[in-house]
Write a structure and sequence with these properties.
Blueprint lengths: L2 E5 L15 E3 L6 H15 L8 H10 L2 H4 E5 L5 E11 L2 E8 L8 H17 L10 E7 L3 H8 L3 E6 L38 E4 L5 E4 L36
Parallel strand pairs: 5-6
Antiparallel strand pairs: 1-6, 1-7, 2-3, 3-4, 4-5, 8-9
């Protein structure tokens, strides 16, 4: 599915207005499991093949953030978590925002509020050492032509890259592979074992004296892979305090 990475030269400092009863606050360390479930639900509503992220992954990310300032959860009138967003410094001059709204709470203003918050937080981070004075760009990744995409465009975010996923049904026979001229493929074969070897791996001692396992070297069939950059559908020069969006931030 196509996803859009966008940047924007500005982001509104104030948060968008949410429906009465909704609010935002910093997440608590013990809410990692709830946030992981919220994000998984939001991602699966956009992409049924999305894999689930674990609470441990969120705890690892939070360990490098200032959790009180770099992340926000949106709460519903009943106190449950309805949205999540974070801003992370990838490297000097490059920041990434990630935001999600639970599918049952779309249209309540959560997405707009989190997008505006992320832009404001990115500006503050970009103004601190060692980033102060350098051009900065905030990147968001969102589904093309969705609500988050429209909200970003309304805030002057600009498209800089499109990611596409290709897939096919596995029902029925698959076409036979066509190898390049001169290339042949055969089953992998292992080299003959040395005399006296009785296991597929041999123990060796490292220079430090610790023990480890080393598998014998082996030959095998060639591995083929193809990749190439996706031509950008647009570009934008970095701008001071620039910004952009993230999946399901609606």
């Amino acid at each position: 599915m196509p996803r859009r990475a966008g940047t924007g030269p500005r982001a509104e400092a104030g948060g968008g207005a949410m429906r009465e009863g909704y609010g935002t606050r910093a997440p608590r360390a013990e809410e990692a499991a709830q946030v992981a479930a919220l994000v998984h639900e939001a991602e699966r509503s956009q992409d049924p093949t999305a894999g689930a992220r674990t609470p441990a992954e969120f705890r690892a990310v939070w360990s490098r953030l200032d959790l009180a300032r770099d992340a926000r959860v949106a709460t519903a009138p009943d106190g449950t978590l309805a949205g999540y967003a974070q801003v992370d410094v990838v490297r000097p001059g490059r920041l990434h925002a990630d935001g999600y709204t639970r599918s049952g709470h779309l249209g309540t203003g959560i997405g707009a509020a989190l997008i505006d918050w992320s832009g404001d937080r990115a500006r503050r981070l970009a103004a601190t050492a060692p980033h102060a004075g350098a051009p900065a760009t905030l990147l968001h990744y969102v589904m093309l032509d969705g609500a988050a995409d429209r909200m970003l465009r309304a805030r002057d975010y600009r498209l800089v890259r499109v990611h596409q996923r290709m897939r096919r049904s596995l029902a029925g026979p698959l076409p036979a592979p066509r190898w390049p001229e001169g290339v042949t493929v055969r089953p992998a074969t292992a080299p003959p074992r040395s005399r006296g070897a009785s296991t597929p791996a041999r123990r060796r001692r490292s220079p430090t004296g610790t023990r480890g396992w080393a598998a014998p070297s082996s030959g095998g069939a060639p591995t083929w892979s193809t990749s190439g950059p996706t031509p950008p559908c647009g570009s934008s020069p970095s701008a001071p305090g620039g910004s952009s969006a993230s999946p399901s931030a609606t």
